[in-house]
Amino acid sequence: MLTVPGAGMQAHILLPDYRELPEEDRLQLCAHLLRLAPASRYLRFGIPTNDETIVRYSQSDHGSDPVICCAHIAGEVRAVAEVYMTSEGWPFSAELALSVEDDWQDAGLGTELMARALRTARSRHVSRLDMNYLPENHRMRRIAAKFGAHSTPRESGAGMITVYFEPLGPGYSPSFGSELRQ
Questions:
Q1: What 3-state DSSP class applies to 5?
Q2: CA quadruple 22, 20, 122, 46: dihedral positive or negative?
Q3: Short-list 84, 166, 172, 164, CA closest to 131
Q4: Could you state, in order of their start, the residue ranges of all structural domains in the chain?
Q5: What is the pLDDT of residue 155?
Q6: Between vectors from CA 146 to CA 87 and to CA 114, what angle results, nearest 5°?
Q7: Which helix (H) or strand (E) covers residue 44, if one does?
Q8: For residue 67, which of 105, 26, 111 has the smallest C-alpha distance?
């Protein structure tokens, strides 16, 4: 349960509705990313990102059939997990990106979306799921550690840290939330 940011004494309790975002609703992804503050955009994309770049990014399919899971709160997309396949053959690999709007951070949305992204990757037989983030993105570092991310021996380009998960690894069992695809 979450309270409405800025609601003060008249706070309403809201339950996030987690569901996959169909391709025809991609404008909701764009609107979500446009609502990120400049600092959050920087942490999400690893570079300063203007509105035009976000619109182009949101319209691209990134060369794969992405699975985009969202946390809808009061009818608006407030947090997103994007899983993009990066290989076409076995072993399958994918890349993960998370974003949570500023007013909704530290409420567990990123953790729940991470669990759902890992289960989605597993259901698609992904053996390696990569995630990149800036060293100063402490929230992502915490979430990655919570789910047993493995560090790579080097930083990726632009000073990003790359971690990976092995959703098909022995003993893998996320302990948060419920199945995204049923």
A1: coil
A2: positive
A3: 164
A4: 18-165
A5: 54
A6: 45
A7: helix 38-45
A8: 26
What does the longest C-alpha to C-alpha distance in the chain come to?
54
DSSP at 135? T
Structure tokens at 59: 């319209």
Q: For 18-165, which CATH superfamily applies? A: Gcn5-related N-acetyltransferase (GNAT) (3.40.630.30)
Peptide bond between residue 91 and the one before it cis (omega within 30 degrees of 0): yes
Query: Considering the entire predicted model, what is its pTM?
Result: 0.82
Output the average pLDDT for the chain: 83
At residue 115 the predicted structure's pLDDT band, cuts being 50, 70 and 90, is very high
State how far the alpha carbon of 42 is from the alpha carbons of 22, 38, 46, 150, in Å.
26, 6, 5, 23
Please report where in the chains the tokens 């989605």 appear, as a residue: 120
Confidence of residue 65 (pLDDT cuts 50, 70, 90): confident
* Mean pLDDT of all residues in 28-40: 96
